[in-house]
């Protein structure tokens, strides 16, 4: 078991790792829409925030030897279920043919007042 870290995704804002790899699995910590270059929260519309989160996850998975095609489980946390439509539209751009298991949960608040947080479990690419 070992931590995964990349400068292409936001650094952890607490005592945790961007991801942990163990065996063939990669467990990516919840990602909020922070721009890794500036460290600032993406404060625009929910679609743009969703893209930022998924790009952060993509970068972490790449560092771990995986990618979005190898994601087996996604958990989406949102502060307003009314955003389901726009989030789902962006999500579908990233998961076109490969459709991992997913949970979509409304929560009362997220770190840094983000509107969305996403965590994933993936397997490493073979070979």
What does this structure look like?
This protein has helices at residues 46-63, 84-94, and strands at residues 2-4, 19-22, 25-31, 71-78, 101-106, 116-123. With 127 residues, it is α+β, with helices and mostly antiparallel strands. The protein has a six-stranded mixed sheet with strand order 1-2-3-6-4-5, with helices on one face. The longest helix has 18 residues, at 46-63. The chain starts with a strand and ends with a strand.
Walk me through the topology:
Elements: E1 2-4, E2 19-22, E3 25-31, H1 46-63, E4 71-78, H2 84-94, E5 101-106, E6 116-123
Helix pairs in contact: 1-2
- H/E topology pattern: EEEHEHEE
CATH topology: 60s Ribosomal Protein L30, Chain: A
Briefly note the structural class of the backbone: alpha+beta
Radius of gyration: 14 Å
Q: Assign the CATH architecture.
A: 2-Layer Sandwich
Q: Which keywords apply here?
A:
alpha+beta; 60s Ribosomal Protein L30, Chain: A
Short description:
With 127 residues, the protein is of the alpha+beta class. It has helices at residues 46-63, 84-94; strands spanning 2-4, 19-22, 25-31, 71-78, 101-106, 116-123.
């Amino acid at each position: 078991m070992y931590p995964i870290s990349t400068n292409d995704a936001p650094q952890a804002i607490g005592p945790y790792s961007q991801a942990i790899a163990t065996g063939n699995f990669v467990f990516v910590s919840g990602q909020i829409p922070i721009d890794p270059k500036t460290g600032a929260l993406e404060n625009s519309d929910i679609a743009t925030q969703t893209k930022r989160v998924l790009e952060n996850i993509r970068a972490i998975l790449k560092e771990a030897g995986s990618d979005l095609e190898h994601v087996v489980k996604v958990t989406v946390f949102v502060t307003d279920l009314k955003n389901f439509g726009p989030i789902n539209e962006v999500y579908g751009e990233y998961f076109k043919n490969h459709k991992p298991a997913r949970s979509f949960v409304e929560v009362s608040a997220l770190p840094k007042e983000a509107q969305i947080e996403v965590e994933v479990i993936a397997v490493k690419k073979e070979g």
